[in-house]
Amino acid sequence: MALYRAVLARAPDSIEALSGLGDSLRDMGSAEEAVTLLDAAVARHPGSAALHYSLGRAHQRAKRLGKAIDIYKIVLKLDPHHADALNSLGLFFSARDDLKSGIALFRKALAARPEFPDALVNLGLNLKLMGQYTPALLAFRQAMRLAPDDVRAHWAASQLQLLMGQFEEGWRGYEWRWRTREESSGRPGLYRQPPWDGKPLPDGKLLIWSEQGVGDEVMFTSLLPELSTKVSCLLECDPRLVPLFARSLPGVELVARAHPLPTRLSAPDIRAQSAAGSLGRWLRPDRASFAGRGGAYLKPDQGKRDRCRGGYGNEKLNVGIAWHTTKVELTAPRPIALEALLPILRVPGARFVSLQYGDHREAIAKLAGEAGIEIHQDPEIDQIKSLDDFAAQIAALDLVITIDNSTAHMAGALGVPAWVLLPHPPEWRWLLEGSDCLWWPSLRLFRQKAWKDWSGVVQEAAEALARHVAAGRPRTASP
Fold first, then answer.
1. Per-residue pLDDT tens digits for 419-430
2. Sign of the C-alpha dihedral, residues 384, 385, 388, 394?
3. Are residues 318 and 397 in the same domain?
4. What is the C-alpha to C-alpha distance for residues 228 and 247, in angstroms, rounded to an integer?
5. Which of 27, 26, 45 lies closest to 35 in space, CA to CA?
6. Among the residues of 249-341, which ranges form H helices?
7. How many domains, the chain?
């Protein structure tokens, strides 16, 4: 920034220096100062596409999106082939669910600048949402060739490869997660042992450290019953999961995750370490490796389970429901408004039990008042604070209907029948097609047919539930 100011002291009308200083101010968090500077610069140089583009980006950083869009359009009037403005406008259209316009703009950006990795990744993400998976993967791969260290390209490609069942390549790319903004916590650097290479450790233990959310912990830990027959395992996990895992994984040593790192994790008998999500590379390299392995492994507290079951009764089918998640992804939104589940909630012969973590009493009360739908809320269960109680609650039910959140994984790990309502496209672990789940045999998958359209999948699940109740088939998830 000092260099730009020095240039402007000698040449106050330098477009390159004005644009550079404005961009620097924006990147340092001084968006308003950048706007003031660039407004004045644009007034002096009304024909400069570069200054207008910098001004648009400053307004965008200041969250004046409408103003930014208007300025990007001015840029394109000044320079119809301005690749950065075309790319930025494409992102706006994508955010407004106009995928076709977004794709058209990304293609124009690439026509103007063929070697444009960011536009290639954006194009690929939009093609993925449109269900054009092979062209999307080609776009990601082209971005990776142009920019071998582009984190977005590698991460997007790995997610799509896993979704498409290309596990060997997908797991390799999955290691790029530690360089993404969401997972760049530095956790891999906390552990002093070398990364595990998939080989036996005859004279020591393997430290596995859990990662991401509760659902991810539960899912990846399903690999440990198999792994612990080959390698002596020590698992570092969320403290809330210790009671449940201790009951369910008798051959695995457990350490509750804490800060600073527990001293046990630096002991000399630990020969190697691995993030839980990296185990898939060694244990699930292809579809065939899932067959007959994994699945239900959690054992609930039977006393707690029986108490829950006694409170729900047996005269109706007891169905747990969950509709919200705090892990919201803009590309494939998972949550469903509670009222959107009315076709399911109106099915007679079922008692609905809330499995939803967080405080949703107002939404549940509103539904009861407006639609006459009663959803039971167990005041003794806190699905966030006590995961052992949460597991017992799920184990007490005949069926679970949930979106893609930790509830789905908890039900699968307990062997409880669960129907999972998936967005289009789903997250990688659910793959592209089919109603069966590779990770959890007790789950059945109901898939959106179109992006962000929940009506069809909810209606499909409602009709399946009506048949399920009519057949009097508790503890079976077959639609």
1. 999 999 999 999
2. negative
3. yes
4. 15
5. 26
6. 280-283, 302-312
7. 3
DSSP 195: B
Q: Read off φ and ψ for residue 124, nearest 5 degrees.
A: -60, -40
Q: Are 309 and 394 in contact (CB under 8 A)?
A: no
What does R_g of the chain's alpha carbons equal in angstroms?
26
Q: Cβ–Cβ contacts within 10 Å for residue 165, how many? A: 14
Nearest to 398 by CA among 337, 336, 355: 355
CA angle, 411 then 304 then 297, to 5°: 35
Three-state DSSP class for 325?
A: coil
Report strand pairing: 232-237 vs 253-256. Answer: parallel
pTM of the model: 0.92
For residues 267 and 311, membership in a common domain is answered with no
- pLDDT computed for residue 7 by the predictor: 47
Domain that includes residue 120, residue range: 2-179
Q: Which residues contact 220 (CB under 8 A, 6 or more apart)?
A: 210, 211, 276, 277, 279, 280
For residue 399, tell me if it sits in a domain. yes
Q: Which of 378, 435, 437 is nearest to 409 (CA)?
A: 437
In-domain check, residue 198: yes
Chain position carrying tokens 């289009």 = 424
Q: DSSP of 343-384, one letter per residue?
A: HHHT-TTEEEEE---S--HHHHHHHHHHH---EE--TT--TT
Cα separation of 155 and 162, whole Å?
A: 11
Residues 240 and 354 in one domain: no
The answer to whether position 169 is within a domain reads yes
Are 105 and 248 part of one and the same domain? no
| 106 located within any domain | yes
The pLDDT tens digits for 394-447 are 999 999 999 999 999 999 999 999 999 999 999 999 999 999 999 999 999 999
CA-CA distance, 327 to 305, in Å (whole number)?
A: 28
Half-sphere exposure of 230 (CA within 13 A, CB side): 10
> Which residues touch 366 (CB under 8 Å, ≥6 apart)?
none
Token pair, residue 349, equals: 């012969």
Token pair recorded at residue 350: 């079922």
Are residues 336 and 465 part of one domain?
Answer: yes
